Amino acid sequence: MSKLAEQDKQASKSLLCKLFGVLRSSYYYGLKPKPISLEAVKTKALVRQIFNDSKRSAGARSIAAILMNEHGIKLTRYMVGKLMSSMGLKSCQLKTHKYKHCDEEHKAHDNILNRNFSPTSPNHVWTGDVTYVRIKGGWCYLAIVLDLYARRIVGFAVSDSPDSMLTTKALQMAYQSRLKPSGVLFHSDQGTHYTSKKFAESVASCNGMKQSM
User: Fold this and answer.
1) Are 73 and 80 contacting, i.e. CB atoms less than 8 angstroms apart?
2) How does residue 131 score in pLDDT terms, banded at 50, 70 and 90?
3) pTM for this prediction
4) Which end of the chain is more exposed for a tag (fewer CB within 10 A), N or C?
C-alpha cells in the first residue's frame, strides 16, 4: 500500500471516529485481540457440564452451589445466570412433585402427644414423616420412623409414590426391628399417607399402638 493511500485510510478513520464521537485510542483498543482467560473457559465448561448432567433442569442458584461445593469456584447466582444466558443455557425445570390424593377412607386422629417431645424411655413415642428427593428420573419419596427417646431412625422405606404403602412399609420395618414393642404412640402430620384406612390397619396390627396427629 502506498504512503498516500495509507494517509487517506488514516484520515478516513479519524473522520469516522469524529463523526461517531469515538476516541481514536478507543477504536484501536477495540482492534486488539483480547487475552483468553483459561479460568473463564474452565468455568464455562463446568457450567455446561453441570447443566447437562442435570438434564437441563439446573438453574443458576443450583449451579452456583455446585460450583462452590464441588469445585471451590465462588460465583453469585446472578453471575452464573449471565454466563448461562451468554451460552444459551435455559433451565427447563422438572415438573414439580405433587402428592397424590387417594379415594379410600381417611380419618384424622387427636393430638395425643401434645408437644411432649421428651419421652422417658425408648419405644414409647415414634414419629413419622415423608419427604421427597429429586433424582435424575424425577422424584423418589422417603418415609421414616423416628424413636423420639434417642432421636434415632428405626424404620424407613423408599418408593416412587408417596402413598400409604410407603408409610406402612416404614412402620412395619420399625415394628419388626424393635422386636414388636407394645403400647407405642405413633405421631405424624395429617398427610393422606397417614390418615388412610390402610395405614390405620397397619397401626392396629401393632400390639397396643395408638395414632396421634
Assistant:
1) no
2) confident
3) 0.52
4) N
